[in-house]
Write a structure and sequence with these properties.
507 residues, Rossmann fold, 2 domains, globular, alpha/beta, binds calcium ion, 18 strands, seven-stranded parallel sheet, 12 helices, 15% strand
């Protein structure tokens, strides 16, 4: 069930199969294609002239033929490209002197140290006498399974395996963008870097707001606390690990043979919005600005694994704005083991009952499907429960991505902060599935579907509306059954939120 990554061997090889004519090597720009060199060699022999069989002066191609015009495509730092060089070239240029690998090797690797665009790579390769072309690199893995997915008990409890074939049954190009409003994200993390949202209109590191959205150098998101273009975690405070963990639960890359699996581990992009900076607390101003940024820059889902006490009109208006612009919002219910609601108002979770298109999320233990010991609750105010711990009595959390460096790359923590991105990933799956079927679901529709398709668990009835517990199989089956593929060429429509009476029962 391996799906292509953004830079995957699968993509390159499929391009190869399509371009396999081989009669005119100049026209075939795919460097990974084994047909081209052979064809080229044949014509060279026939012409009786000694010629480098790889000498196709087409340069830089990075799968343009697969995805159309994409010279503005941004390539993240850490991206690995494969460069085809002249044999033993002793005129190293700007690109070739940065290559890794033995100089005798024709194909060498180039890892980008800073983000750049495809157009810039093309220009660099064009000027470099030693470079014949550049292709998308990728790593081929000996296994297609994420090695630590077996340690993610919540994936089994959510029945993700039977859900995924239904979710991805219909092909669909556009990724779902999930904004993580949190403490920042380890952008170079091996299991997150390929899933980062990229602001195509922004040129990195030039000190300019190229796309005119009001934020300078916001390539993967923004740091609202420090007012910088890098949303990476900063400082030395312990909470800085939080955002990376949350992001991995929602959207760490699935089936890449590395680490864990996010709930939406394919077809998702993570927009990193750091509202904490180096502070253990985030201001409402920064959070409200981040919500508006997500809405204005194409997010489909917002996750807020954060909370405080009391109301703020800034929160309310920012949340209403985002939902109106089509963003479904998820918020952690909080970890005080308290009943929340109008008398004990938890911000932003307590806005959820009043907003169709926003859900607050309580936490459950995977070990027994009970409410986690720490989780806030309310049978009228908290709209969904899902896993945020494996065993909250033993303080055993969920495994997800961690910041690395002198710390682990994967670790366990627990909280409603973990349950919320699990639900946000499920929201992303529902959006993807409905869009692929020709619909344009509103946030209210997504909230309704998540609630109606949830399993009602008796042990949760006192804690969550209707005891609703997320289950990905029942979610995907519900959409499959109730939203047939629309083949009309008309503009996609919002199918509308389902009626509560349609609610599925647990079995
Ligand atoms: Ca900008
Ligand atoms: Ca810029
Ligand atoms: Ca993975
Ligand atoms: Ca709601």
């Amino acid at each position: 069930m391996r799906r292509p990554l953004s830079f995957s061997l699968v993509v390159v090889l499929s391009a190869c199969a399509k371009g396999g004519g081989g009669e005119t090597p100049q026209a075939n720009h795919n460097l990974a294609c084994p047909v081209t060199p052979k064809a080229s060699m044949m014509s060279a022999i026939q012409a009786g002239e000694p010629q480098d069989p790889f000498a196709i002066r087409g340069k830089v191609l990075l799968n343009e033929d697969e995805a159309g015009i994409q010279s503005e495509r941004t390539l993240n730092a850490g991206t690995e490209l494969v460069v085809l060089t002249q044999p033993n070239c002793d005129l190293p240029g700007a690109l070739s002197k940065q290559l890794e690998g033995d100089q005798n090797q024709r194909f060498r690797s180039w890892t980008l140290k800073s983000p750049t665009t495809l157009a810039k790579v093309s220009k660099l390769a064009e000027k470099d006498e030693c470079v014949l072309g550049v292709a998308d690199g990728s790593t081929a893995y000996t296994t297609e399974v994420d090695p630590r997915a077996a340690q993610q008990a919540h994936l089994q409890r959510l029945e993700i395996e039977p859900a995924l074939p239904l979710v991805y049954a219909a092909p669909f190009e556009k990724d779902v963008t999930i904004a993580i409003i949190d403490t920042g994200i380890t952008l170079e993390h091996e299991d997150l870097k390929e899933a980062l949202w990229i602001n195509d209109g922004e040129i990195p590191g030039n000190g300019l707001d190229d796309d005119g959205n009001g934020y300078i150098d916001d390539v993967n998101g923004f740091n609202f606390a420090a007012n910088t273009g890098s949303p990476k975690h900063v400082g030395t405070w312990s909470g800085r690990q939080h955002g990376t963990h949350v992001a991995g639960l929602a959207a760490a890359v699935r089936d890449n043979g590395v680490g864990i699996s996010g709930i939406m581990g394919s077809g998702a992009k993570i927009m990193a919005l750091n509202v904490f900076g180096e502070n253990p607390g985030a201001s409402v101003k920064n959070i409200a600005n981040a919500i508006v940024y997500a809405a204005d820059n194409g997010a489909d889902v917002i996750n807020m694994s954060l909370g405080g006490r009391g109301r703020s009109a800034a929160y309310e208006s920012a949340l209403a704005y985002a939902i109106k612009k089509g963003v479904t919002v998820f918020a952690a219910a909080g970890n005080a083991s308290q009943k929340i609601g109008p008398e004990n108002f938890a911000s932003p979770a307590s806005y959820s009952p009043g907003l169709s298109g926003m859900l607050s999320v309580a936490s459950m233990d995977t070990v027994n499907m009970n409410l986690s010991r720490f989780s806030n609750y309310s049978s009228t105010e908290v709209e969904l429960a899902t896993y945020g711990s494996e065993d909250s009595v033993k303080r055993l959390g969920l495994l997800s991505t961690w910041i690395g460096g002198s710390f682990k790359l994967y670790d366990r923590i627990q909280g409603t902060s973990m349950a919320s991105p699990v639900a946000a990933g499920a929201g992303g799956l529902a959006i993807r599935m409905l869009r692929a079927r020709g619909y344009s679901p509103s946030p209210a529709t997504i909230e309704g579907i998540l609630q109606v398709s949830a399993q009602s668990l008796p042990q949760l009835l006192s804690y969550v509306v209707d005891g609703q517990s997320l289950n990905l199989r029942t979610l995907a089956e519900y959409i499959d059954k109730n939203y047939p593929v629309v083949t009309s060429s008309e503009k996609p429509i919002d199918p509308g939120a389902p009626q509560r009476t349609e609610k599925a029962c647990a079995n």
